[in-house]
Predict the structure.
Amino acid sequence: MNAVADVLAAIFLITGALLSLSAGVALVRFPDLLSRMHAATKPQVLGLLLVLAGGALRLRDHFGMLALVAVFQMATAPVAAHMIGRAGYRAGQVRHDLLVADELAEKP
């Protein structure tokens, strides 16, 4: 049973690390604020959750602490992304030609 848990932990850790790496590369490569914000939240959070799951499988004694980290990450990442998006929109850093719908635009 320990061998299966170790293999699953390794798979989760490697997959999570690759997702976090891809999020970091996307932050540098994506052209605008909203694309970068998407890359900073979605794959990064999933990558962190996979790393935490791998760590929980490997370190069975610290499951509560790792679950607490996961809960705080899931609670703060959407709020931070929303605040960055709103601030970027108000500062004029959003490319309006890439938006499908602009719900924050002034109504005539």
In short: The chain has one domain: 2-98. Residues 2-98 form one domain. Helices lie at 2-29, 33-58, 63-90. The CA atoms of residues 50 and 82 lie 23 Å apart.
